[in-house]
Amino acid sequence: MTGGGPLVLVVEDEAPVRRFLRAALAAHGYRIEEAGTVAEAEQLAPGHNPDVFLLDLGLPDGDGIDLARRLREWTRAPIIVLSARGREEDKVTALDAGADDYLTKPFGVNELLARVRVALRHAQAPPDGPPVVEVGPLRIDLARREITRSGAEVRLTPTEYRVLAMLARNAGKVLTHRQILREVWGPNATEAHYVRVQVAELRKKLEDEPARPRLLMTEPGVGYRLRDRVD
């Protein structure tokens, strides 16, 4: 383990899972602190100021959702939820509480490491995201409000642009239907189909095969993610 890698605070009450995460992260240069309860996490976090949190939801002295909300009050560090709860409503609740990503147990090491890398890249970007986002053939210039695909200009409606710009500012991060609705249509909007319609239109204009998207990805029942890179 190197001494200068990003610091990860693992909040997990199961010792075998902590050992697994410690070994996986340390082998790739991350520094690790561990907490087995909400109380331990709240004691460790302010003094160590982690670069990223890995947070279980089912903790013995409280719910990880509440901990995520309290962490988000003072830190912008990414919070990745690791939980056996795989229901859509659990994912939505965690993301709305301030989590940046959600991995359902069991998961593989490579997927975990990829999610951590994406979260850290996103955290290192300016608060409003980079002025230019490039994903495969898609180029989004937020400063100029220009969208090109393989060099050709793409014309969007004002609403389509607002949805795409929000996803671009958060590239690599899943945004819930509720988050997009509030940002684009206002705090009182509740109709999730507004978002689905706009994303469908965007896919027609941006994807090679709209029915098999490679750029604008769906998290079923939760929301959408603009990939930050295409393999």
UniProtKB/TrEMBL annotation:
Keyword terms: Cytoplasm, DNA-binding, Phosphoprotein, Transcription, Transcription regulation, Two-component regulatory system
Pfam families hit by this protein: Response_reg (PF00072), Trans_reg_C (PF00486)
A GO molecular-function descriptor: cis-regulatory region sequence-specific DNA binding
UniProt subcellular location: Cytoplasm
GO cellular component: cytosol; protein-DNA complex
DNA-binding positions: 130-228
Post-translational modification 4-aspartylphosphate, affected residues: D56
InterPro entries, per database record: CheY-like_superfamily, OmpR/PhoB-type_DNA-bd, Sig_transdc_resp-reg_receiver, WalR-like, WH-like_DNA-bd_sf
Domain of life: Bacteria
Domain Response regulatory: 7-120
Protein name: Two component transcriptional regulator, winged helix family
